Input
Amino acid sequence: MTVSRKIAAEFLGTAMLLAVVVGSGIMGQRLAGGNDALALLGNTIATGAGLIVLIHMFGPVSGAHFNPAVTLVVVMRRGIAPGAAAAYVVAQTAGALSGVWLAHAMFAEPLIQISAKLRDGWPQGLSECIATFGLIGTILSTQRSRPEFTPVAVGLYITAAYWFTASTSFANPAVTLARSLSDTFAGIAPSSVPLFIAAQIAGAVLALAVFAWLLEEEPIDA
Amino acid sequence: MTVSRKIAAEFLGTAMLLAVVVGSGIMGQRLAGGNDALALLGNTIATGAGLIVLIHMFGPVSGAHFNPAVTLVVVMRRGIAPGAAAAYVVAQTAGALSGVWLAHAMFAEPLIQISAKLRDGWPQGLSECIATFGLIGTILSTQRSRPEFTPVAVGLYITAAYWFTASTSFANPAVTLARSLSDTFAGIAPSSVPLFIAAQIAGAVLALAVFAWLLEEEPIDA
Amino acid sequence: MTVSRKIAAEFLGTAMLLAVVVGSGIMGQRLAGGNDALALLGNTIATGAGLIVLIHMFGPVSGAHFNPAVTLVVVMRRGIAPGAAAAYVVAQTAGALSGVWLAHAMFAEPLIQISAKLRDGWPQGLSECIATFGLIGTILSTQRSRPEFTPVAVGLYITAAYWFTASTSFANPAVTLARSLSDTFAGIAPSSVPLFIAAQIAGAVLALAVFAWLLEEEPIDA
Amino acid sequence: MTVSRKIAAEFLGTAMLLAVVVGSGIMGQRLAGGNDALALLGNTIATGAGLIVLIHMFGPVSGAHFNPAVTLVVVMRRGIAPGAAAAYVVAQTAGALSGVWLAHAMFAEPLIQISAKLRDGWPQGLSECIATFGLIGTILSTQRSRPEFTPVAVGLYITAAYWFTASTSFANPAVTLARSLSDTFAGIAPSSVPLFIAAQIAGAVLALAVFAWLLEEEPIDA
Output
């Protein structure tokens, strides 16, 4: 029963996250009259605020990963068994797809879409690597020194990363895959997905190495 | 006396909430020069910030429901007697109407208006169902694991929901009814009100079922 | 010595507050290309964030009133002696004027200006009455139930009030007087000042009465 | 080992800070369609949110100075040895340069650039003096009364200072130097750098004097 609740929390939380990301992107683009800075502002504020809430909602149940890159890091630190991690990733992916379709339904868009928005080239890959490096670094460092602040830190980090990376910071393989099925503001062409996911995994592993060294054996003062 | 204070807190808090929602919508629309993304940004920031403050102000007195859907859920969880709940709903509705008129007065608008803004169709209903589901889920889950964060969580949730739902997330039957009496940015045509309220109640009941299962018997770590 | 520190804190804090309000108004208007919603957004974000910081900075020294209406309420609640209150108001007023001139200097504006921006009529007066009522209510209620949150609550309240009142919420007699000496975005014509100050005092006294009744003898749960 | 971790934290944190400042400036300018208020809004939100996160991430390791003006003040208060401080400043400067180049790489800009954006004249110098005065005052006062809030206070302060100073508040010599190597939204012409750095140091020393007097021997109530 406890396990089924954790899986449900990952599914539901990731679904709501994608509904926020894709839905607010559609709203932003529809209202902004062609100004993408305004569309991204609305998208950013909704995503940052939404993430803070969702991590608070589901964190006590499942840890609120919502992200295979996070689950990968937790496995590597032996914080979750590999089998449970696999179930988490399946739930996250299914949740992400459901969230995209939910956003499409709310905005009266065709449910099934394929994004035509190419996000190619090594600067995009570098952006995703840095974006995920920072996300994992945020989680590892705040979990160590001030864990009750981690949900807010993650929301604020993504708020910043939507703007400081050239890719608008997907930083999440399940999110990337699901957004390839939305031909809206937040979409990504399927052909760009492998680069993004590879870069995200590289960034996550790099962050694990760097922050394990940086934080290990360091006295933490509250 | 204590009961009269609770009723007064629900009345006053809901009135101030509607003054914020409707007033900032008027201000946004007047200043934004036809760009609805900008108008919604101002509306969003004011509503999110205002909600956080209002819940802190009146929460210790009445619980700061400001919302018949919230009161319904509290009744179903036996957190308030049915008679008191009915008084709460009356106070919320009267407060919401007063708040709309106060906003009209501050902005030198005709006091009595009827909105002509149709918000029809099942995607709008779905949006309200999801919006209210998320609101109730936010309250139930944070009340369980971190109650001192609930006011901020509700403000951030509505900040996100103004953008990720196609209806801009009314998520509140008293607010919906009152906004039908404002032919401004935040208005809703009276003919669209029944769909919204039905969807809100459905979303609230759904959230109660889902989160009761998800959070029950789950160990909560502070 | 302690008294001189308190006076200095009121002077310096109010000066910095006005530098933020007037300076960010100038910046907003210069950059926004004629779109007042954008100018007000920048003005709002700077003022809200700045207030939260300034109250944290000077609160432990002087209480961080920065506002004769707040000092009036504190006197009426016997939280400060009348003589000290008079010194506070002088320091606030001198600080407010200094802050306006500092903003003008930073933006290479003529130091001495008189605003030509009329803000007349009873809807503006009502706006200021409500704005100050809400500000004092925010302070009184959060001081009672959660005092460590008051600085954030005040910053968020003003963030909302810039948008939900037709007057953009001055809510402060010293700020009002000083802004009459700036012919920029945040200015107010001297002829509109008496209405604003009268309405602010009325709102403050009304809030004192309402919240004294609402909060008195009410059990507060942390 | 501990020292190398501190140096690494200052390097990495300052690099990420500059990636945020310069990267979000590029993103803002590219998307804003010529409206600098919108570009600055994106730049502001990213920088403020990013700073809060970065100070939480690296604070427990190195104190998260990221700024030679901060390190100078800490040395003058004997909070760090002069030799360690020198190493901090080297790490901050190297990190700042790396962060600028990282932003350029993510956005497919030429790595090596020289800014052509003149920021001259005494109002700009005054702006930087006030900006740094406020930043140091924020740190000294919140460290005294509520140290766990300092990271949020610094982020909110910079959020405000981007708008209320005419220079958009660099307030950091290493940041200033590095931004001279970016001919983008956040750039500063090399010829304007000395004025900025001199003003920043003056503001920092002034803040140290004023706040040492203001906060000394003052009872602090939590």
About this structure: Residues 218-222 of chain A have pLDDT under 50 and may be disordered. DSSP finds eight helices and no strands in chain A. Chain A touches chain D through 44 residues (CB under 8 Å).
